[in-house]
Structure formats: structure tokens, C-alpha cells
Design goal:
mainly alpha, 78% helix
């Protein structure tokens, strides 16, 4: 039986913290060496991940047409941005108090280099910078869609499959060992007392923000559709519970679709919105990544400035569209931005991955419930009846809608 990634990460953190105090230094240095090599490999693959996945996501969206597609994408992106900035302002207010006195930045690097140097280093130079990869992804993705370049589109699709395979079979399986090494080193150098309590506080804040975000989303959707927000949200609870168990928006689509229909969304709109939003609407994941990034910046001795986080949130909203459908895929897609925009090092990235995977199911559940709110809004904009699933417009309008719905 395959052990879920979340369980693997929990085991890695537990044994890393436990064994760091007892293993001899030469054994710890083996994991320091592995972490160094893996970090270089990760740095090499990140531009390729961004180039292939973002290009494929843009090409896939651009190849479709229809007013409802543009409306849905705009609403989903707006929801994601709102989630990111809601998180920023909430955490900028609360984190300085919650995490006061916790700093682990430069001290970690100095102690590790002095006491636990790797046996050897491997230098793997990326073939391009992260921002270069992001700009190229936009160019290739939009070019393939606008110019109907089928050969380029097929190349992008094949590249996406290759990179997703690389993530699924080389990066994700090694992440628990990488995280084990990080916490082993932290424990060996007596820094766990300052780090571990941070996790619980940050996770509690993230869960509270998830609830607040869903309430806001459904209040807005209910106001637009003139419905009861609590009834709409109550109907989506089975989808929320399913997402908690599966940690996958795609696997939850059948339940999400059923509950969206119970909310009175027309079947044509539901079948269009739910699968699309499962791919492009990751407000819950954006919330988590932003909050965790702010916590890591703060405990690393940095400042939570809007000029630093605003570009990060805007780019993160776009990058989430390209997140691969594997466990931990969203945080892997965001790693490039963490490094290029926020200047994260390997230790900070490892902390981000650990925090993200530890709450993966909560972010997915928030994403799924948010999809239901978007479906209600799009249903109202389309003119379809939100009460009985019948068309509130003329038959000609219904035919037009059917043609626009992929």
C-alpha cells in the first residue's frame, strides 16, 4: 500500500527532529550532502517547470473561445488576487505579534556551514533564469494559441507531460527525504525550539483565513444571485469533505458538480465551470502559499513589505493555473517565484514545502468550495435560472450559450 505524501512528510519531520540529537556528525553530513545535490537539481528543473507548465496552461486556455470562458477566467483570477491580498494584510497585522522574537535566518546558514559541511558539492547550472522562463512561457503559450501553431502546441503538450513525469517520479518521491534532512540538520544544531512552535500558530491562522475567504466568496455570490449565502455554502459541504479526503480538486469534480447543481446552477454552466475552475481557480492554495511565505520571511529576519509581496501575489495567481495535478504540485510551481521574487534559499523552500503539504487538503477543500461560488456568479451572468435549472432567456440565447460552452 502506498503511503500518502502527507504521512511521509509527517514521518520525515518527526524522525528528523528525533534523530538529529543522536546521530553522529558524519551521518548527518550524508544528508547535508544529499540536500545540497537535491537543491541543485531542483534549481535546474524549476525554470523548465515554469516554461512547460505555464506555456501549456496559457495555450490550453487561449485555444478555447467564448464570452463565458473570459468571464470565468477573469472571476477566477480576481478571486485568487483577492485571496492573496486578504492574506497579506491579515498576516501583516497578526504575524509580527504571533511570531515575535523568532529569527532563524543567517544563524542557520553560518552554523550549518561551520559544523556540518557536505562531503562534496555538485554544481548544476540552470539553462535559463526563472523570469526568462516565465516570459518565454507567455510568448510560446500565447503564440501557439493565437497563431494556431499545431506543431508548437504539440511540442508544449509533450513538454508538459515530460515535466509532470519528472515532478511525479523524481521530485515528489524525494521530497520527504529532503525534508527529513532539513529537520535533521535543524535538530542537530539545536534550532527546533524556535521553529516548531511557529508551525502550529501559522496553520491556525491559515485555517481561519480559509473560513473567512469562503464566507466572503459566498456572500458576494449570494448578493449577485440574490440567494442565501449560508444555504449555498451548506450545500457545498459534501464537496469540501470529499476534498479533505482526496486532496485533489480533479478527483472531487463529480461531487462538486453534484453539489453545484443542488445550488440551482444550470447543468450547462455547471459542466463548464466546475472542471475549468478545478484547473484555474486555486484561491485556497494562493492563500496558504502567501501566508507561509510571509511567515518564513519574518522568521528569517525579513520585512513584510507590500512592494515585495504585491508582485509575488500577481505572479502567483498566474502560476497557479499551471500547477500540475500531483500532490504538492502547487507549491512546486510556486517555488520559482519564492526564489526569484522573495529570494528564498533551499532551507526556506523546504520549510514552505513542509507547511504546504501539512495543510494540503485544507487548501484543496477551499479551492473546491470557491469553485461553487464562481459557478453561481457565472450562472447569474449567463441569464440561466438559478432556481430550477431552466433558461430564463429565449431559446436563441440558450443555443448561443451551448455553442460557447466547451
Amino acid at each position: 500500500m502506498k503511503i500518502p505524501l502527507l504521512v511521509q512528510v509527517i514521518i520525515a519531520v518527526f524522525f528528523g527532529l528525533l534523530m538529529g540529537r543522536y546521530l553522529p556528525t558524519p551521518i548527518v553530513r550524508i544528508f547535508v550532502t544529499f540536500n545540497g545535490v537535491f537543491s541543485e537539481y531542483l534549481s535546474f528543473t524549476i525554470p523548465l517547470i515554469i516554461l512547460s507548465l505555464v506555456a501549456a496552461g496559457i495555450a490550453g486556455l487561449g485555444a478555447k473561445s467564448g464570452r463565458l470562458l473570459l468571464i470565468t477566467v477573469a472571476i477566477a483570477y480576481g478571486s485568487t488576487l483577492f485571496s492573496g491580498f486578504l492574506t497579506y494584510f491579515s498576516c501583516a497585522f497578526s504575524f509580527p505579534k504571533l511570531l515575535a522574537g523568532v529569527t532563524v535566518g543567517a544563524q542557520i546558514q553560518t552554523e550549518v556551514l561551520d559544523k556540518l559541511a557536505p562531503f562534496f558539492d555538485v554544481d548544476i547550472e540552470p539553462i535559463m533564469g526563472v523570469m526568462t522562463a516565465l516570459v518565454m512561457a507567455f510568448m510560446f503559450g500565447m503564440g501557439a494559441a493565437v497563431c494556431k501553431a499545431e506543431t508548437m502546441k504539440k511540442f508544449i503538450d509533450d513538454a508538459q507531460k515530460i515535466i509532470e513525469t519528472v515532478i511525479q517520479y523524481t521530485i515528489i518521491p524525494l521530497l520527504p527525504l529532503f525534508i527529513f534532512g532539513i529537520f535533521l540538520i535543524m535538530s542537530a544544531t539545536d534550532r527546533t525550539e524556535s521553529i516548531v512552535p511557529v508551525f502550529g500558530k501559522v496553520i491556525v491562522v491559515v485555517i481561519i483565513l480559509h473560513v473567512a475567504l469562503l464566507l466572503i466568496q459566498y456572500c458576494i455570490a449570494a448578493a449577485i444571485a440574490r440567494r442565501n449565502p449560508f444555504k449555498l455554502l451548506w450545500n457545498m459541504l459534501p464537496a469540501y469533505a470529499t476534498a479533505l479526503g482526496t486532496s485533489s480538486s480533479a478527483a472531487t469534480i463529480p461531487v462538486t458538480l453534484r453539489q453545484v447543481l443542488k445550488n440551482g446552477v444550470h447543468p450547462a454552466i455547471a459542466h463548464f465551470c466546475v472542471p475549468l475552475c478545478a484547473t484555474i481557480h486555486l484561491a485556497g492554495s494562493t492563500l496558504k502559499i502567501t501566508a507561509f511565505a510571509m511567515a518564513v520571511v519574518l522568521i528569517s529576519g525579513g520585512e513584510l513589505t507590500l512592494t515585495q509581496f504585491a508582485p509575488f501575489i500577481f505572479l502567483l495567481g498566474i502560476t497557479m493555473v499551471a500547477a500540475p495535478g500531483v500532490p504538492g504540485g502547487a507549491i512546486m510551481a510556486a517555488t520559482a517565484l519564492l526564489q526569484s521574487v522573495l529570494g528564498f534559499n533551499a532551507d526556506n523552500v523546504a520549510l514552505m514545502i513542509t507547511l504546504y503539504i501539512a495543510t494540503d487538503s485544507f487548501g484543496t477543500a477551499c479551492n473546491v468550495c470557491g469553485d461553487g461560488a464562481i459557478a453561481v456568479v457565472v450562472n447569474q451572468i449567463s441569464g440561466k435560472s438559478s432556481e430550477d435549472g431552466s433558461d430564463s432567456n429565449s431559446g436563441s440565447n440558450s443555443g448561443k450559450l451551448t455553442q460557447e460552452t466547451p
